[in-house]
Amino acid sequence: MTKSFHGWRKSRHSEPNGGCIEAGRAADGTIGVRDTKLDGTGPILEFTADAWRTLLRSIRSAAH
């Protein structure tokens, strides 16, 4: 069964040429991530809320 994600938000770190990602949320709290170049038709990576927080913490700590 395919989950329905809503509230897609584009990354604040988007490239000027339009290459970026969007993140949305499913009713069960799963976070979906997709490539905007595919106009919502490409694959969606799915993360649990805990995995998403861990990923963001890791990215933020690597940036400093």
Automatic annotation (TrEMBL):
Pfam families: DUF397
Domain called DUF397: residue spans: 7-60
Compositionally biased tracts (Basic residues): 1-12
InterPro entries recorded: DUF397
Segments of this protein annotated with the region Disordered: 1-24
Taxonomic superkingdom: Bacteria
Protein name listed in UniProt: DUF397 domain-containing protein
Source organism phylogeny: Bacteria, Bacillati, Actinomycetota, Actinomycetes, Streptosporangiales
